[in-house]
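Possible regression after last week's pipeline update?

I re-ran a chain I had predicted before the update to compare outputs. Posting the input and the new output here so someone can diff against the archived version. Not blocking, just want to make sure nothing changed silently.
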Amino acid sequence: DDDDDDDGTKRGMAKTVENGRGDGAVRRRVEAFRRGLGLLVIALADATRDSEDAERARAPGNDRGTKEEKVSARERRATSTTSNDDLWSRVNAAPVRAFLAVAEAERRRNGIAPPLIREETVAVARSKRGGRGGGRRKGRAACRCHSLERLDVDAFVAHLTTGPDSLGGKGQCEHRLDVPARPTRLAPEGSPPPALRPATVAALVASGVPLDDADHARLRLFSHQHDGISAALRGKNVCVATGTASGKSVCYNVPVLDSLLHDPDATALYLFPTKALAQDQIRALRVMLDGAATYLGDHAEPVDVGVYDGDTPETERNRVRAECRLVITNPDMLHVGFLPQHKRWARVFKGLKYVVLDEAHVYRGVFGSHVSLVVRRLRRISRELYGSDPRFIVTSATIANPREHAVDLVGDMPTMEDEDAIRAGCDLRSVGGGSESVRSDHPPRSDHPPTAEFAEASPTEWEVIDVDGSPSGEKTFLMWNPPVREVIVAKRVKAERRRAVREEPRGKAAVAARLRAKSANTKVAAAAAAAEDEGNPGRAVGAAMRAKTKAGAVPEDARDAALVASVRSKAPRSSPIVEVAALLAECVRHDLKCIAFCKTKKLCELVLRYCREILRDTGAGHLADSVAAYRGGYAAVDRRAVEGALFGGALRGVAATNALELGVDVGYLDCTLHLGFPGTVASLVQQSGRAGRRGRRALGVYVAFDGPLDQYFMRDPARLFERPIERAAVDPQNFKIMQAHAQCAAHEIPLDPRVAEDNRPCGTVGVDARVYFGAALGDVCDALRAERKLTLADPMAEMKAAKGARGGGGRGGGGGGGPAPDARLVWCGGLVSDGERGPANGVSIRTIEEERYRIVDEASGRVIEEVEASKAFWEVYPGAVYLNQARTYLCKSLDVESRTARVRLADVKYFTGTVDATTVTLVQHGAQRHAYPDRPGPAHRRPQFPGTTAQCAECEIRVTFSAYHKIWQGTGRVFDTVSLNLPDVTYKTRAAWIRVPDAARRECEESGLDFRAGVHAATHAMINALPLFLMVNQSDVGAECDDPQRGHYKPTRILIFDRQPGGVGIAERAAPVFSRLLRAAMELIEECRDCRGDGAGVAKGTGPDPGDGSRGRSEEDGEGGPDSASTNPASQTPRDQSGCPGCVHYLACDVYNVSLDRLAALVVLRSIVNAEEGTFGSFERAAGSGSDPTAAGDGCGCCANGRHGKRGGA
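New output (post-update):
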């Protein structure tokens, strides 16, 4: 018996390993193919014999005999053991088309779904259920179209939505919006053209900008281009915020080239957020430079352009540093490659005239806060060491606050002339020892006087251009909802009907029900008879229905219709991935250039694979190579190849992440597809704006997922189209972020954090705090000195200061009247050991990881791709299906030590997904603090923050992998689950939380509400209210999201945490204002018009406060506090209890917004507020308002800086 058990265990282990490799799936498919081929051979033999029997039956003399005597030829053959060699030889010689004809006949006779097979493929017989797993191939509806006719946008929309056989024949198109065209707006007649040199005009003409027909010396510029160029040439800082593909690059290329062509020592710096933008821009610049060189001939000054990014080889980097006058890079390389090594870039810094920040709307949240401090470090080095004061040109997509965002990114600084006047008006000897002593290691700034080129304006002056003058063609936007799975609806309706039958009353209750029904039927018959007497059959039917309803009986048809409607509203829908792939295939086959935007890399690869299979299955296999994927992670060579094919027009369709959302010139596009809501309205507008350039007709299709967020917009599209554009917010005063960049700045130039007395300008004293980084720099440097990461530049400075104080020298210095001690700070280590690059390498400004896993093809040894270490366990693990440009690989092994995953090509029809769980564990939190607000405790226990029981401490985020699913392509059905053994992914960060009182659970149970869903929704509402108090981006904040279906234990608390390892200070700043956050979250839910359905108003967005105090309350509600009459959930009749994006939906939810209950959230929030007031009411009255850190302007760093909208009375 033991041996048998061992054998069984070994067989089970072997089967598990076989399943992990995918060998079992291949073996099963081969066996199924052989069985299907055998069935087809038998079917063809049967068809041949049937035809022979029919011929003999039609022969003369074969019509005799009774019906009982005519036995079926097929039955005789079934009992016969003899074989017919001639028959089988004919079957073996039959062509493939004969088998296909038999398969089609069998399908029609038995009702089997049609197999999608090509003529060169032997058909495989399938069961009536459609075969194993994904028996119906992807995009079956799309296979009805085999045409390759070229269509325009209008004909294509009709092709998609008209007729039952169209791709949208099941009613997928739920809404259509037609946006009218926008005409061209040129510069006003009579306005002076920009004062450009002839070589610059020639460069513009070479790039495609036409000349005016009436005046050949004048360019036909759009109005925003004309205004932007003119403002930049006048020396102003410029911010251009217009739509996608509006020609914003002309606004900065023209003044930059004009300056470089005129001044041989001038330089410029372009900052792009992605490498694709840099490659796109360098192509356009070289075309313009060739046009200028053609005009100038032999007199042309060389203007070398170079790209300096992570893909640039070392030899090219040396050339860029030594020769290039226009350098294109990104904020990451500026942070680690330029600023710490500024001496190697001295030539560029000395002549720096312009700095361009393109796609500035990307710089928001934590990433934007890092970039804003990197730019301040750039300006500090340029002004203080090299005497250059560059102008900034900031371009952005349409956002709500372009001027504020540009100033926050760049900094609001006085001109160098004004700064020199401030310093000259002070006694430098008495306050700092003069500029030579302050900058003893570099030449004084007066040796590099600023040029008079921009004497007309101050760089603190900003010109904002937000009126788009470019033309835009008519655009149609379709809201595309995948159809409901009718098979599942039928099964669930049948189950509900059976349950209703089982729950029908029996015994005496059944007799009473039958008597009531009989009485109702009698009244119905009487009413119908009375109506018939009047000769009105229609009235008779209506009278019968009214009488039946009045008698208390619901009509059977109405009851059944309500049941079907209820089941359909909860039934799953078809795969949106397949729908997008089918739409992309339709665009490709009808010659419409298209981009399908997807939110993840895996979605890109799945859309590409499905699209290519659909094209091959519908006779357009020659077009399969005209579709590609573009996403992060590809090798540089592969990425450049896709970019070249895309820019050159060789590709008709691309499945891309948001890497192509930005202003990459991809030529003329006809259509954009959007797989799910991208997160913000601004991103959706930016993506859809990729199509329709230069007045061309365009189409956009938003394909919804089955989640609450997408379905909310499908139910009410007006809530999407009428939502306001979001604001872009950065916080350069973030304490944690400034700590990192203060170390970098001190390594680049000694840092002076002193603040002048009474905030009066005092020369070079405190210039870094006063001009570049703000008053918070002093506290930041004190903390860094305590951690021994910064130290005095003069180790004897403190001793000299003490000696001067004893000698009575006063503030000026020692008794001899000498200079005051040098109080500047330098970096002394603490992040990395690289003395040359300093601390910059240890500061990641957008969590770009250097540790990566290599994915290696074991057959060729080639590195296919590299993935970040933090994402590797989700993409490559033993048994994982990995996709790269629609090629399917099966992961054979994963070596964690060497960070290498080995894969091999495989032909499998499924993909994989991990089964993981994220838990939040509090690492440290004092037991003496108020953990449970409704439980009494010792009087000496004090809260961590005055006025609230909220706490903040270090936490550990742990992701545990237990298994992975095998999922059929197309259907999305899980058919196998394989255990997985991977190390946990952990990191430590900071969390803020507050306990939920037990009273909330009791009240939810009494009201019949889902308590855990209420806590989940309340946590989301807190995050949505967070931008009202802190300048944060919601994607930078994580929440402890709960899925009740997992059945695990979870503490009853509302917890938020910083998503970046180590934390960036968001949780620490949120904890003191938790009381105000709770009330704001309540107002957000109570006054959400979308959920109440009390008007056509747009749902209040989840962005920052508009600044007028109107967020979270209506004009009639006054203060809108928790005591308002509308706070009773029982008095409300919401349209959707799961909420909406305006209140409790959260895009980054780990469980995709399942199990949300906004009414239960109100109960939870109100219980916490009541507990807080009961605990701290007496404390607040005793302490007075002056000690409450949550008072307006005290607990909110952004309000204290005067840059955030005030929220009075919260």
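Follow-up from reviewer: compared with the archived run. The chain has a mean pLDDT of 75. Marking as no regression found.
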